[in-house]
Amino acid sequence: MTPDQVVKMMGDESTSGLLGAKINNPYSTEYFERDPDYFFILWYYTDVNQADGMVTRDELTPIIFKNGEAVGYGWNYYNQAKHYGGSNGKVRLVNPR
User: Fold this and answer.
1) What does residue 10 show for φ and ψ, rounded to 5 degrees?
2) How far apart, in whole angstroms, are the C-alpha atoms of residue 82 and residue 11?
3) 9 three-class SS
């Protein structure tokens, strides 16, 4: 799936935080490269961990795209892509379960 297809499926509507604040989804995006691959991350607001009126990374869920296609979601996928990504044949994104 492409980022546009994921946003269409997941939605792009605002959600209400614990204190009633409107929070847009996807909340943020990220882009980085691991030669020769590129990664795009959609960050969705999914959890309230502390009712402090702030949105922190631990309250977001990343959806990871490698070279324009969704390859996974969650922190395990994100950490693999961020720290070990690339398609040199030695490392590939695997199911985090």
Assistant:
1) -80, -30
2) 25
3) helix
Domain ranges within the chain, ordered by starting residue? 3-84
What backbone torsions phi and psi does residue 82 show, to the nearest 5 degrees? Answer: -65, -40
- To which residue do tokens 């390859």 refer? 71
Which tens digits make up the pLDDT trace of 4-37? 999 999 888 777 666 667 788 999 999 999 888 9
Question: Mean pLDDT of all residues in the chain?
Answer: 82
Query: Could you tell me the CA-to-CA distances from 80 to 6, 17, 85 in Å, in that order?
Result: 20, 29, 6
Where are the strands (E) in the chain, listed by range? 15-16, 22-23, 28-34, 37-45, 60-66, 69-73
Contact criterion met (CB below 8 Å) for 44 and 25: yes
Distance, in Å, from the CA atom of 34 to the CA atom of 30, rounded to the nearest integer, reads 13
With 0.70 as the threshold, say if the pTM is over it.
yes
Amino acid letter, 78: Y
